């Protein structure tokens, strides 16, 4: 994806479409999902945890091709589940979409994409979540 498209995408997105983490101002470590207290600095991090929006850019550290899928995902199988090391540091597990599983390799660059995950039957609320696509 071209950078300009990506930043426009982020700007127009609402909070729920963003990857919000936290950064410890004491040691500089970044956490996703957000944390209230830095697990390294403990007490020294109190009041120093700042919101940080992850770029969604990262590299595949490892992956597995999942052949068994629950019924609600049956149209998608097999799918690729990968461990992604983000630019900012945190590791995120996510599904790699829009590619053939054979294209996925360790070390390949990916970026976050937001997809409709499903709908809550009772409330009609549409649930979105992040996935990743190859750059
Ligand atoms: Zn810290």
UniProtKB/TrEMBL annotation:
SUPFAM superfamilies for this protein: Nucleic acid-binding proteins (SSF50249)
Pfam families in alphabetical order: OB_ChsH2_C, zf-ChsH2
InterPro entries: ChsH2_C, ChsH2_Znr, NA-bd_OB-fold, Thioester_dehydratase-like
Transmembrane segments: none
Gene3D superfamilies from the UniProt entry: 6.10.30.10
Residue ranges of domain ChsH2 C-terminal OB-fold in the record: 53-115
Every ChsH2 rubredoxin-like zinc ribbon domain range: 16-44
Protein name as it appears in the record: Transcriptional regulator
Organism: Thermoplasma acidophilum (strain ATCC 25905 / DSM 1728 / JCM 9062 / NBRC 15155 / AMRC-C165)
């Amino acid at each position: 994806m071209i950078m300009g498209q990506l930043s426009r995408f982020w700007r127009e997105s609402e909070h729920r479409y963003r990857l919000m983490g936290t950064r410890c101002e004491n040691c500089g470590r970044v956490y996703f999902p957000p944390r209230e207290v830095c697990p390294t600095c403990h007490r020294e991090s109190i009041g120093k945890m700042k919101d940080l929006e992850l770029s969604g850019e990262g590299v595949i550290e490892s992956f597995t091709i999942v052949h068994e899928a629950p019924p609600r995902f049956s149209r998608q199988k097999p799918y690729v589940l990968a461990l992604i090391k983000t630019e900012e540091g945190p590791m995120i597990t996510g599904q790699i979409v829009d590619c053939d599983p054979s294209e996925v390799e360790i070390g390949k660059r990916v970026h976050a994409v937001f997809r409709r995950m499903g709908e809550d039957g009772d409330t009609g609320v549409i649930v979105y979540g992040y996935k990743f696509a190859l750059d």
